[in-house]
Amino acid sequence: MVDAPQDTQKIIQVLLRGYQFSDSDLYKAVYDRWYAILDRHFDWFRDHLALSGFTLSREKQVIFLEKENKTLSQEERQAVVALFLLADLWLEKGKSYGDLFQLSVPWAELDWFRDGYGKEYLDQVGIEGGNDGALEQLFRRLANKGFLEYDDNARTMTLRRPAERLIDLARRLHQQINTGEPDDTVAEAQEQGDA
Asked: Partners of 65 in the beta sheet?
């Protein structure tokens, strides 16, 4: 019988609250150790969580629990839309995509609620025009789940690797909507809805 890895209970508790571990955690105190343990003992954690009915998955350097219910919740839809729009608005300013993961992005300075698809998308997921408070609360919740680092005082954020998964998903969905071509992206979106 193999002994349980160090900090197993804490790692599982963090996973169960929806946190997605990634190599971005290597720069975050305590989480750096937990990510290393989870990464090194991934098969052990996957097998033991499976005994309780949970599916531990890995996508590149991101480790997360898959949802049993594949339908996206309201918060998950908000996360996909907000992260997609963040990337889009950032790129419109002439900034690079990679900067989203390296720089502190002053999200409040971006034109989230201007006319066009951004306002429409936000309205569809329950973030009404001009409601910066709802966006800020969403970003705080996403920070608690490992998608980004959030600075309350400066109202800035830096995205982490788990956010990249959602942005890629949102790009594929947006492309499908624009081209009108049916594919498996919607089913895939529901499978990846782990926000």
From this structure: 56
